[in-house]
Amino acid sequence: MILVAENRKLKMSDVLAHPLGPLPWALASGDGSLRKTNKAALARELERNVYPAEVIPEPSATIIDGMSLVQKLKGNDNTFSQLAGTALSHVVHEGAKSRRIDVVFDVYKETSIKDAERANRSAGTGIHFKNIQPGHNIQQWRKLLGSSSNKASLIKFLIEEWKKPQHREKLEGKELYVTCEQLCFKITKEQSVGRGS
User: Sorted alphabetically, which PANTHER family does this protein's record hold (predicted)?
Assistant: First the structure.
């Protein structure tokens, strides 16, 4: 680079102002694989100049990261139906002071920028659920969550369970909005309604 810059009478500061590899270093490592982001560092930066409200104005809404909630659950030795009930109880508890609760789930597309990372994380899991049944016992919860297709199936199952009358009973005086891919469902104690984006 120095020889090229000298031959063409270029300033080194101008030459080094551009990426010297096939991809910008901020996005990829030297071998071409995508650079992982530190979401926790981003969250800290966003929260740095924000102070928690001492009083939350009414009416308020609670927004819950659905997959974060699922990751916190202990699924082993439960049925999928029990897991759905536990998850909904956590949702209602988190949104206890709100009339509206929004649960936003991740979308797992087959072709995604996260494919390489997901493949590394789930290498060798081998367990794939297409049709989750309410009475099926969960044996290897963490391995089940290692697969994107399993997560997508689990999200669909949870929403279908939450729509059932026995689960809707927990929603006394609340409106639950929950996402599933491009769909959003409104679930109340009385009914459930879904619509596309």
Answer: BHLH DOMAIN-CONTAINING PROTEIN, CXC DOMAIN-CONTAINING PROTEIN-RELATED
What is the model's pLDDT at position 115?
62
Same domain, 29 and 80: no
pLDDT in tens, 103-130: 999 988 776 666 666 566 654 456 677 7
Contact between 30 and 19 (Cβ < 8 Å): no
| Residue range(s) defining the domain that contains residue 147 | 61-196
What does the mean pLDDT of the chain come to? 84
Reply yes or no: is the peptide bond before residue 165 cis, omega within 30 of 0: no
Shared domain check, 66 and 26 = no
Task: Note the pLDDT of residue 124.
Answer: 47
Q: Which of 172, 191, 160 is nearest to 180 (CA)?
A: 160
Q: Across-strand partners of 62? A: 101
Count of domains for the chain: 2
Residue 52 lies in a domain: no
Task: Name, in order, each residue with C-beta under 8 angstroms of 167's C-beta and a sequence gap of 6 or more.
Answer: 84, 85, 88, 161
Amino acid at site 55: V
Residue 45, domain member (yes or no): no
